[in-house]
Amino acid sequence: MDQANGPLRLDLKGLKCPLPALHTRRALERAAPGTVILVECTDPMAVIDIPHLVGQTGNVLEEQTSQGGVLGFRIRRA
């Protein structure tokens, strides 16, 4: 994935568990080391699932936000 165009954005709003975590896992597996992935989703379980996934896979959760029912995660591929 080319970082020259900025971070990779995943719009997963409206998807229900476990889909946000599965899509995030797939994006992390395909991304080059150092790639930043911005994930946005609305599934309340993602607040548990995505940080757990990131820790389990050895990647870095740089930021986690919640605004207007949208959960945001900034993840850096290790």
Automatic annotation (TrEMBL):
This protein's source sits in the domain of life called: Bacteria
The record's section on InterPro entries has:
TusA-like (IPR001455), TusA-like_sf (IPR036868)
The signal peptide annotation in the UniProt record is none
Please report the stretch or stretches of sequence annotated as the UPF0033 domain.
Answer: 10-34
Annotated family: Belongs to the sulfur carrier protein TusA family.
What name has this protein been given in UniProt?
A: Sulfurtransferase TusA family protein
Please tell me the species this chain comes from: Ancylobacter koreensis
